[in-house]
Each structure stands twice: as C-alpha cells, then as structure tokens.
Specification:
single chain, 638 residues, mainly beta, Immunoglobulin-like, 3 domains, 13% helix, binds CU-O-CU linkage
C-alpha cells in the first residue's frame, strides 16, 4: 500500500537564502539542517576567506559575482568551456552514504543563454550555470532540496523535478501556468521541498513551453538505504547516461510553423541525437558555423571485470530512443524510481521522460572499444531530415585507469556491431515493458472512481491542428497559474468546497473562466482509475506529475469493461511515464494522496504545446490549507 498521507506536512516558510551561498553559482553547497545562526556565521566566514584567497591568486572574479548573460555569452562556441565534464559530474561516488541523517542540500542554478556546439554545430543554448548538459542534483531520501534559481536568460523559466512527489508542496512542482507563474527574466525563485518516500533516477527540466529542449535539463539521483539493501552489492560504479535528441535551432523557432494552419501535426524532426550532450556530426553537411573538433563522442571508461550501474534518462523532446551496448547484456533493475526484478535484455526502448537503471558488466575480451548506441526511432517522424543520422553513438572503452583516460573523443572508434546483427548471430532480446515486475511487491487497492480520457489531434478552426483531451485543448494560462487561482479561491472559501468537490470537471470560473484548463477534481484520498484512449496514430509518452501510477493494463483498439474484473492487481508495475501506442489505450491507477494540481500530459514537447495536457485537482480542502512562500504568489503579481 502507498504511504498514508492524511496529514499534510506543514509547508515550511522560506528563510532568506544565505547571500554567501547564492553568490556562488556552480555546484552544490551542502548545508546541515537546521542551519543555526552560528553555523551561518561560520559559513559566511569561510566564504569570505575563500573569496579573499581566490582574489589573492587572481582567479576569483567568477566566484564573487553572478553571471550576467550579456558579459558571459562568448562570441563563439570555439572554446569548449560550455561543455559539462560529464565523466566527473555524472559519476556517482561509490562512497556516497545513503544512511546519513537527513540534511538540506543547496544548489544554485543560474539560467542563461550561451553559444555552444554539442555536436559541433554552433547554436544558442539555454543552460544552467553556463554548462551543457545541466548539473546533477543528488540527495538521500528524506533530505530537503533547496534550489535557488536566478533567471539571467531572455525568456521566462521554471524548473520542474520530474517524478518528485512534492507531497504537501505542490507549489514547488515548477510547472509554468499550472503549479506556478513562470520566473520572468531577471528574477529569481527558490525551490524548497523534501524528498520523501521515493528514491531512484529522476531528472529536472524547464517546464516553460518547449524550453527544456534548448538545454535546461539535468539528472536527479535520490539514494536510499532501502534501495541500497536491494542493489548496492551488485555493482561497483555508476554513471548517468542522458539520451537525447537535438535540434540545431531554438525550440521557439519551430513552434510557429508547427502550430500554423495546414500543418497536419508534422512535428519538427531533430537534426541529431546526443549521449550525455555530445555526438558526432559531419560539419561539411552545413554552411553554418560548425566546429568539427567539437563533433565528439562521450567515452565511458570501464575497468575489465567491474559492473556498472548506468542510469538512463530519455531527455529528448520528441524521439523514442533504443539503447544498447554492443556485446554487453543489460540487466534492468529500476524504472522511473521503481526497483524491478532483474530483467536481462540486449536492447531497450526508452520513451521521452522515462528512466531506467541497467547493470552492465565489463566482461568482454575480444577488443577494448565498443559502441554504446542511442538509436532514434525515425518511424515516428512524419518528415525526413537529411542531416539526421539516427544512430547516435558513444564509446565504451576498457581502460586500466579511468581517472587518467579521455572522456570525450573525436578519434576513438569501435568496430563492434549492434545486437541482432548477423555478425553476432543472436536473436535480439528487446525490452517488453510488461515484463517489468516491482521487486518490492505491492497489491493495487480497488478503485473508487473511474475517468476516461479520449486524446486526439483534430483539425479545427483555421485548419490549425491541435491536441484535444475530452474535447478540450490546453493553452497555458497567462498571468496566473491554475494552482495560484485555485488556492486563492479555495483559501478564502471557509470550508465549503461542495461545488469544487463534485467528482468531475471543475467549473472554469475557478480558473478565471479560462476554458483551456480541463480540470478533474478528486475530492478525497480516493483510488483513481484513468483509462487513456489514444485516438491518434502516434504513440504518446504520458507523464503524471505528483504520483507514480500502477500500469494495470494496456493494449490496441478499445478497452472492454469486461476486462475490468480480470485485472491482475497483485503486483503491477508502478511508474510515472508510460508510452501509449498509437490507437492504443492504457488503464492506470493511482492513490490521490497528494493534494495539489497535477498535470497529466504527453511529454513530447511539441504535443504538449499543441495542448495534450489535462489537470487533476486533488483534495481541494488541503489545497486551501497550503502555506506557499510569499515569493511564489509574487511571481503571479509581477
Ligand atoms: Cu517531465 Cu510535466 O514533465
């Protein structure tokens, strides 16, 4: 059974953030909880001392001031300062202690625009702390995360922590126009929440329009003694592997054409794929600025005999990505923060937003370089892109001393072939997501309420092709957010929520008469069944905020209610992002134990922008009692 949360944790008022902490804009600062005044003084003293030393040796300039996009955007991407050293930054220390007492971990994020060339092709990127891809956020279950966001970019932003429950802090979910008003350029906002009752692999990303695909994303890893007891003795080292697609222009540049009349849901096709933010590209294919020496591949350095936990995160805007490593089996042990019974595959499909942990043993002897593959599935692309080589590659390199080995390369090659190719002469063992079985078994409780959502793309007025859920297409509220609006209505309503509590669609007057907010209200801590019918020919990776849901059943065609009594509820897979096939359906179930407003949406950025999003308003009486910080409300009053 999911944890009881009848008691909503008191939301903690934000304390003024320590200026000595927020003045530094790279890397995490660890701060014990509670931070006493004395400790803050000591911290301030330490920081002053560091700054003095830094200035004394003449390298302190970057440490003592905020970044400003104007003076930080280099004229070209020719130097590679913009590239995050993922071999170091995405390597989880084997010494990490998941049993430490809960603490507060502070991260400072400065959003800005830079010129970068992840695959050699120079373009403007929107990034955090001047680097691409974004920094790792790492903590233990039970820790408090404090993320100070300063928006030095030219557009608004908000940072969402994908898969984090935010139970009791729905206003920290980071979803523009839903859980908050976006952070305008030049402003800041502090995310402050406790990570409770969950662990595993997650990610953070901008939730303002399609902004994350311009570079505003990074991994989140939550450690837990519970998971370590299950898994920790099965691997030696762990790395994060971000699987992405990549466009050569800013996302906004595509939006207009995509949503224009006569364009029948022809999504922009990516120009490349990236593994940990890098990939090869042939610069001679384009006339624009392109640095061939930066068209490089990520190298994962393995030591023979060791076992690695790779945390895969599909951070793409659009593409399904098939992951594999030539000649190496993958043992799946986690999906979306749910530990699963070990499942061995050769190749596995990842949908946008999904995460998987796989164990890989460096047990080969024939050679010491192997291709790691992130194959973009082009069959879902409506158009051709001649620039795109969908077979994104990185290198797995067996070395004696990883600390002194190169971790990005333009020259290192492999001659291995993909699983399933004739050379290997084996049948390729693909991941069938129905084979995933949670290792901590849990029976799904019976449902109290049932909703059906029909999703489709429809050509309506002016021949504009938009996405609809039960006849409504989502358009972000402007100048407000649904949670802000609901909170204002509910908290002044002295306990009478009858109309809002009615099971079903919330009247739009609660959302400033905005007909584009399709909202279903769930009154109590009910067990909710959602049947999602995908009436479109394309597959959609649906993501629900604030929860993990049980995947009770899915298929092609239509769901017959006769199946309802025959569902296997013994130990169904539980996750937060599920790919629903074209003309298919899925029946999912969740316990509405988390008050707030939670979107369910397709994670393909183009589709979300076309309106493929609806919202659940859960436990309105508890929403009324929330205690968001003043700066949260102020974002809607700017
Ligand atoms: Cu990964 Cu609504 O988000």
């Amino acid at each position: 059974m999911p944890p009881e949360t009848e008691k909503v944790p008191e939301a903690e008022k934000l304390t003024e953030s320590d200026p000595s902490v927020s003045a530094e804009d790279t890397g995490p600062v660890f701060q014990r909880k509670p931070a006493s005044k004395k400790k803050l003084l000591v911290w301030a003293g330490v920081v002053v001392l560091l700054v003095v030393i830094a200035i004394a040796v003449g390298v302190g300039v970057g440490v003592t001031r905020h970044r400003h996009s104007s003076d930080d955007v280099p004229a070209t991407a020719e130097n590679t300062d913009w590239r995050l050293d993922t071999a170091t930054e995405y390597h989880i220390s084997p010494k990490w202690n998941s049993s430490e007492p809960p603490t507060t971990r502070v991260y400072n994020f400065t959003v800005s625009e830079i010129l970068g060339a992840p695959d050699g092709f120079e373009r403007t990127l929107t990034v955090v702390n001047g680097k691409f891809p974004g920094p790792l956020v790492e903590c233990n279950e039970g820790d408090r995360l404090v993320i100070n966001v300063l928006n030095n970019g030219t557009n608004a932003t908000s940072i969402h922590f994908h898969g984090q429950y935010q139970n009791g802090t729905a206003y920290m979910d980071g979803t523009s126009s839903i859980s908050q008003c976006p952070i305008p350029a030049g402003h800041s906002f502090t995310y402050n929440f406790t990570v409770a009752d969950q662990w595993g692999t997650y990610w953070w990303h901008s939730h303002f329009g399609p902004q994350y695909q311009d570079g505003v994303f990074g991994p989140v890893v939550v450690h837990s003694p519970t998971e370590d007891a299950l898994l920790r003795d099965q691997y030696d080292e762990e790395y994060i592997v971000l699987l992405g697609d990549w466009y050569h222009s800013l996302a906004d540049a595509y939006m207009e054409k995509y949503l224009s009349s006569g364009n029948e849901n022809t999504e922009p096709v990516p120009d490349n794929g990236l593994i940990n933010g890098a990939a090869f590209f042939n610069c001679s294919d384009v006339d624009e600025t392109c640095y061939q020496d930066q068209a490089a591949r990520t190298v994962f350095n393995f030591v023979h005999g060791k076992t690695y936990r790779l945390r895969l995160i599909n951070v793409a805007a659009f593409a399904e990505i098939d992951f594999s490593i030539d000649d190496h089996e993958l043992v799946i042990v986690e999906a979306d923060g749910t530990n699963v019974e070990p499942l061995t595959v050769h190749k596995m499909r990842t949908a946008v937003g999904q995460r998987y942990s796989v164990l890989v043993t460096a047990n080969q002897t024939a050679t010491d370089t192997f291709w790691m593959r992130g194959q973009l599935n082009t069959y879902c692309f409506a158009e051709n892109n001649d620039l795109l080589d969908p077979n994104t590659l990185a290198v797995v390199h067996y070395v004696a001393d990883p600390a002194n080995a190169t971790n990005i390369t333009t020259t290192l090659d492999a001659s291995t072939s993909a699983w399933g190719n004739t050379k290997n002469n084996v049948l390729c063992k693909d991941l069938n997501t129905t084979d995933l079985v949670p290792s901590i078994s849990e029976v799904a409780p019976d449902a109290d309420i049932f909703f059906r959502l029909d999703t489709s793309f429809q050509i309506k007025a002016y021949a504009i092709d938009l996405a609809y859920i039960n006849g409504t297409t989502w358009v972000p509220m402007s100048g407000s957010s649904t949670l802000y609006s609901a909170f204002n209505q509910l908290s002044t309503q002295s306990g009478n929520y009858t109309e809002l509590n009615a099971t079903g669609v919330v009247p739009s007057k609660y959302y400033e008469n905005d007909k584009h907010q399709y909202m279903i209200s769930i009154q109590n801590r009910s067990v909710v069944d959602i049947l999602i019918n995908n009436l479109d020919d394309g597959a959609h990776p649906f993501h629900l905020h604030g929860y993990k849901f049980w995947v009770l059943s899915f298929g092609q065609g239509t769901f017959h209610h006769s199946k309802y009594d025959k569902l296997d509820k013994k130990n169904p897979m539980k996750r937060d992002t599920l790919q629903i096939p074209g003309y298919g359906w899925a029946l999912i179930r969740f316990v509405a134990d988390n008050p707030g407003i939670w979107p369910l949406h397709c994670h393909i950025t183009w589709h979300m922008e076309a309106g493929l999003l609806m919202q659940f308003q859960v436990q309105p009486d508890k929403i009324a009692q929330m205690n968001p910080p003043d700066e949260w409300a102020e974002l809607c009053e700017l």
